[in-house]
Recover the amino acids of this structure.
């Protein structure tokens, strides 16, 4: 049985390498893209069995696009294929009902086995993953009737936190001190009612999903 795969990665060499790995197997690449918009469009056009999605697509949020295609096509096997394995990314992937998280250091046979497993309707998450992330995911689903009054700067910081950036990295991007970033993070955590950065990332993902 043929397994139809959609590749979403902003590095052409990664996409080309995967396609070479799939030669002479039952796995075929039906479409590829480097952008979140392309992922959403091609998922609808091609209706693949499995999507391999980089967490960061063209400097944007591949996980948000992956969550959108999972909403539209719940039976689609979506695998995050990335080296961005910060806890916030892993938790957001699970919250978005991804079928698993696969690091790019995985070898050919591991990637093929993962695709076959997901195409068969199974998950790549193991019990240790589930136990570790269970507490992270127990955050209230944001109600559209409740507006959380984040300042523009807090919203900006939250977006960077959701992308797994450290306080130092956020400070460098925004041109402010790490201590100022720390204050923003502590304040926004209190406002949205979560206990840590990973839960904040999940909260943001769920709010964006509506």
């Amino acid at each position: 049985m043929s397994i139809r795969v959609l590749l979403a990665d902003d590095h052409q060499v990664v996409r080309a390498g995967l396609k070479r790995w799939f030669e002479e197997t039952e796995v075929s690449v039906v479409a590829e893209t480097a952008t979140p918009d392309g992922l959403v469009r091609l998922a609808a056009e091609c209706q693949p069995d499995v999507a391999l999605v980089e967490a960061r697509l063209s400097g944007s949020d591949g996980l948000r696009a992956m969550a959108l295609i999972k909403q539209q096509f719940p039976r689609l096997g979506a695998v995050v294929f990335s080296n961005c394995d910060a806890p916030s990314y892993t938790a957001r992937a699970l919250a978005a009902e991804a079928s698993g998280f696969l690091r790019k250091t995985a070898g050919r046979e591991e990637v093929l086995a993962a695709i076959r497993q997901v195409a068969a309707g199974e998950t790549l998450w193991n019990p240790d993953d589930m136990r570790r992330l269970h507490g992270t995911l127990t955050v209230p689903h944001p109600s559209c009737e409740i507006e959380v009054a984040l300042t523009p700067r807090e919203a900006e910081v939250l977006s960077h936190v959701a992308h797994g950036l450290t306080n130092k990295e956020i400070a460098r991007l925004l041109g402010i001190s790490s201590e100022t970033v720390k204050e923003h993070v502590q304040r926004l955590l209190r406002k949205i009612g979560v206990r840590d950065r990973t839960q904040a990332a999940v909260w943001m993902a769920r709010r964006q999903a509506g």
